[in-house]
Design brief:
Helix content is 37%, strand content 19%. It is of the alpha/beta class. It has two domains: 4-194, inorganic pyrophosphatase (n-terminal core) (Alpha-Beta Complex), CATH 3.90.1640.10; 203-320, Diaminopimelate Epimerase, Chain A, domain 1. The strands form two sheets. A six-stranded parallel sheet has the order 3-2-1-4-5-6. Strands 7-8-9-10-12-11 form a six-stranded mixed sheet, sandwiched between helices. The longest helix has 16 residues, at 28-43. The protein is globular, with a radius of gyration of 19 Å. Bound molecules: manganese (II) ion (MN). Residues 29, 85, 110, 129-130, 160 line the site of manganese (II) ion.
Length: 321
């Protein structure tokens, strides 16, 4: 349910200028929800700045309104901020330093680990994605969607539910998607843009990563490591978490799939965690200062790749037994 306070806040006449942002490592749900909220606010007569601490990944450049996204060094003067798909305000990156304590901060998120950092918090971890929540927001405001908004929300739902596969997909998710189809969106085109748009070299790199996959002796934990050198030669790999980790998760008997991306050689490793359902990877990531959902989470560790892999794999194996 959309909180009444959120609707009231958006309707406030004295709040004229909004900044809207989403988490770094932009992906379909974050970007779709951000742009859809921006569109909604503009239609309510607000001035809106979409700001991110990240460039938009190439596969999302087709999204309507994506050219309005700015990557500023600081935030512009604003009356209220809306953060979508962020478990914590710091998830928007360096620009979070410029959030003002004396301005409304609206938190719209579906992460179970959400820190309720806003002045208005709408956190619903039972919802599949931020875009499904933004869809509900349009309904609560009695606003008809336009086709561009439908494309944005459908893209977010498609990407965050793994194309309606993950357990977070509910009847309400499908109903929202069904409604979005009535706006004449081209679902195959969206699918193609997201999933059938890789370069020849990237697909070959996926193959190399799959063949370098490892698993523990119980076969319950499988992992893939992406070395810094490979990310350097194929930067797109840094964004392709789901495409890569699906190899590990798809192995029969695997309970926890892990992806280790060497962000800075010898110094920092980004870890993505996926569960088959038995192990809570939100709790597993929390051991290392991260979080997310029970089925999908992430954390970032300092140190050499070899040490990070050993530590996280050991903890994952422990939780599988
Ligand atoms: Mn999301």
């Amino acid at each position: 349910m959309v909180p009444k306070k959120l609707v009231a806040e958006l309707k406030r006449k004295d709040l004229k200028v909004f900044v809207v942002s989403a988490h770094i490592h932009l992906e379909g749900d974050a970007l779709g929800a951000e742009l859809a909220v921006a569109s909604l606010l503009k239609r309510m007569g607000k001035t809106v700045y979409c700001v991110n601490d990240d460039d938009v990944p190439e596969e999302y450049l087709f999204l309507p309104g994506v050219k309005t996204v700015r990557r500023p060094h600081a935030l512009p003067a604003y009356d209220a901020a809306v953060l979508v798909d962020c478990s914590d305000a710091s998830r928007i990156g360096k620009i979070s330093r410029f959030l003002r304590r004396d301005r409304p901060l609206i938190n719209i998120d579906h992460h179970i680990s959400n820190a309720r950092f806003g002045t208005v918090n709408w956190v619903d971890s039972r919802t599949s994605c931020a875009c499904e929540m933004v869809y509900q927001l349009f309904c609560a405001l009695g606003m008809r969607l336009n086709k561009a908004e439908a494309v944005l929300l459908y893209t977010g739902i498609l990407s965050d539910t793994g194309s309606f596969r993950y357990a977070s997909t509910s009847a309400a998710t499908h109903q929202a998607a069904a409604h979005l189809l009535r706006y004449g969106i081209d679902v195959y085109e969206i699918h193609r843009r997201l999933y059938e748009n890789f370069s020849y070299e990237t697909i070959r790199a996926f193959g190399r990563l799959a063949s370098a996959m490892q698993r523990d002796k119980t076969g319950k934990v499988a992992w893939i490591e992406v070395p810094a050198a490979l990310i350097k030669s194929q930067p797109v790999l840094a964004e392709q978490t789901d495409e890569i980790i699906r190899f590990a998760r798809a192995v029969k008997g695997v309970e926890v799939a892990l992806l280790f991306k060497e962000v800075r050689r010898g110094r920092e490793v980004r870890v993505n965690l996926r569960s088959r359902g038995r192990v809570d990877v939100n709790a597993l990531a929390a051991v290392f200062g991260g979080g997310g959902h029970k089925m999908a989470s992430g954390c970032t560790l300092k140190g050499a790749r070899k040490d990070v892999v050993a530590k996280v794999v050991a903890e994952a194996v422990r939780r599988c037994s």
